[in-house]
Every structure is written in C-alpha cells, then in structure tokens.
Write a structure and sequence with these properties.
By secondary structure, the chain is α/β, with parallel strands linked by helices. The longest helix is centred in the first third of the chain and has 15 residues.
Length: 346
C-alpha cells in the first residue's frame, strides 16, 4: 500500500536519507517509484526558446545573462506564426505538450500579452502548453491561465541559505512568490533545481526539503546537473560526484513520490551507467533531442539505443495523467541549458 504523501519533511530527515548506504537508498527510492509509476516508462519532452539572451539577472551558471561573455546573442521574441509553425511540427511528431521559454527577469505586462497570444494560438492546435518567463505577478499568471496555459516552470535552483552565493539580482522569496501566484491562478507547476554548483550535501538536502514542503508538490521536478559554460562565474567548479547526483534523484523520488522527476540538464556529461542508476532511483522524465537550450544533450539515436538496452519505453499519450505527459519531439532550442527558470530545462 502506497505511503501517504507528506509535506512536512524536516531538514534532518532529508539529510538522513542522503546519509543512507547507497544501495539502501536506491532500494527505498525504487520501491517508492514502483508504488506510483510504471518503472519502465520514461516521459520524453522538449522545449523551444521563444526569446533568447539579454537577461539582466546575474545567475552565476547562466550563459543568457547579458553581463557574461558567453557567445549567446540576444534575440527578440519570436512571432506568433513562427512559434505556431514549430508547435505544429511538434504535434505532427507526436507531441502533446509544447513548452516555451523566454529569457526575462520579469516580463512586462505587454510581454505577457504577446506570450498569451502565442499560447492561445498553440492551444488552438490541440496541444497542452507550458511556459517559463521569469517572475510573474498574480495578474500576469491569471492572464496566461485565461489564454490557455497549462503549466509554468519556475525553479528554486538551490537551498535558501546557498542562494545568495549564486544569484544577487532577485531573492529566494521572489521565486516562492511566483510559485504562489502560479498555483493561485490554477496553473500546474514545474519546479526543481541545479546541483553541482559548489553546494554541500546538506544544502542539496535543503533544496529538496524546500520543494517537498511546498503546499503542492510540483507536478514535474527537474533535477539539473550544472553545465559549465565558459564565461560564467561557475565555469571551473569542481564536478559533482556522479553517485551524489544519483543520491539526489533518489531522495527527490522518496520525498515527492507522485511527481515526475526529470533527469534534466547535464545528461550529456553522464555515461549510460549513471543514467541507468538514475532511472532505477526514480527518474522518469528526460529531455529528448540533440540540443538542450544552448548546451548539448545526448542525441536522439543514442537515447533510443539506451532505452532499448534498458528495456525502457517512452510514456505513451494514452498513459497520461494530470502529471504525466509524453512530448516526443526532435527540435532545437536556445537558452540557458541549466534549468534556471529564465528559458529553462524544465
């Protein structure tokens, strides 16, 4: 019988999960995973950056920040027709949800109105819609909901006490406030973070404890491994031990059993064995395609071969629930690549 879903995990309890012997932790996580999900099905998704670069934020990992010299060129918001053409191609390829990201700190009302027009057009194709645009007011969230938006991505990035080491241009509470506005508008949430930014294990526990303490667990929880980009302050950070990343996936699965746990940015740097451990530990969602925003992603054929070797299958549209979506699409996107919530890997 499945255990009740909790929202009252303490930091000490989460830290104790991280401290379990590796095999014991994976056993517990996989047992929870099997109670709530098909252990051999993986959601495959993608997103399109509809406005890239030029962001005024100073997120230390992000090549879209205007203040860093990373080779990412600022681009204007794509036209409705251009986005609809990509969305139609997505639908033709079998996608059921179309994700759109824009590199803003906080969009102006006129920007939200333009995105709402895009959302209405994409929704008119019969697709579910998802967006990540930065911080939103309650009124902006309502505007997007009324336009037909289904999901909103906004990541916490890291633990509250480590956040100030990574970002100075917005506060942690700003992110929590946006999530409140999104939930109050009736939108579903996609919210996770980035590991490998120099944080401690206890701070990784803090990130997951904060996520699991939200009034409603995010329907999708992207766990991103830092993708180091030349020109950003975090380039050169000591790489996270792969087994510590697997532990993070496992703990996320135990804390948020019904959520889709997404093995997100950084997958190109993982070998197949590490990815297999992540799937066993409870990851059941990935991005599919040869490019993940501005950073690389395992190519489509490699993913197909890996799925075949592991006897995994993409989650079919017929299997979908409110928290499960099969978005199979081969497309390019441009943006951060670190799941930051500006044009994030959700």
């Amino acid at each position: 019988m499945a255990q009740p879903i909790r929202h009252d995990w303490t930091r000490a309890e989460v830290a104790a999960l991280f401290a379990l012997p590796f095999n014991e932790l994976l056993h517990r996580a996989h047992s929870v995973h099997r109670e709530h999900h098909d252990p051999n099905a993986v959601q495959v998704s993608t997103l399109l950056s509809i406005k890239t670069g030029g962001c005024p934020e100073d997120c230390a990992y992000c090549p879209q920040a205007a203040r860093y010299d990373t080779g990412v060129q600022a681009q204007k918001l794509m036209s409705v027709d251009a986005v609809v053409a990509r969305a139609q191609a997505a639908k033709s390829a079998g996608a059921s949800r179309f994700c759109m990201g824009a590199a803003w700190r906080s969009p102006k009302d006129r920007d939200v109105e333009k995105v709402a027009e895009i959302v209405r057009a994409v929704k008119g194709l019969g697709l579910e819609t998802c967006a990540t645009l930065g911080m939103l007011s309650g009124e902006q969230a309502q505007t997007l909901k009324q336009a037909g938006l289904d999901y909103y991505n906004h990541n916490l990035d890291t633990a509250p006490e480590f956040y100030g080491e990574i970002i100075h241009t917005r506060q942690y509470q700003d992110r929590l406030d946006t999530l409140d506005h999104v939930r109050e508008a009736g939108l579903k949430t996609c919210c996770g973070g980035i590991v490998g930014m120099g944080e401690t294990r206890d701070q990784r526990a803090g990130l997951l404890q904060t996520l699991a303490s939200l009034p409603e667990h995010p329907q999708s929880v992207p766990i991103n491994q830092l993708v180091q980009v030349e020109g950003t302050p975090l380039n050169g950070t000591q790489a996270l031990d792969p087994f510590d990343f697997v532990r993070t996936i496992a703990v996320a699965r135990i804390l948020m059993p019904a959520s889709m746990v997404r093995l997100s940015a950084g997958r190109q740097q993982m070998d197949d064995a590490v990815q297999a451990l992540c799937f066993f530990a409870g990851a059941n969602s990935i991005f599919y395609g040869e490019k993940l925003l501005t950073t690389g992603n395992p190519d489509v054929e490699h993913d197909r071969q890996l799925f075949a070797r592991l006897d995994l299958h993409p989650l079919e549209v017929a299997e979908e629930t409110d928290t499960v979506h099969a978005d199979i699409l081969e497309t390019e996107a441009a943006g951060c690549g670190n799941g930051c919530g500006c044009s994030a890997a959700a």
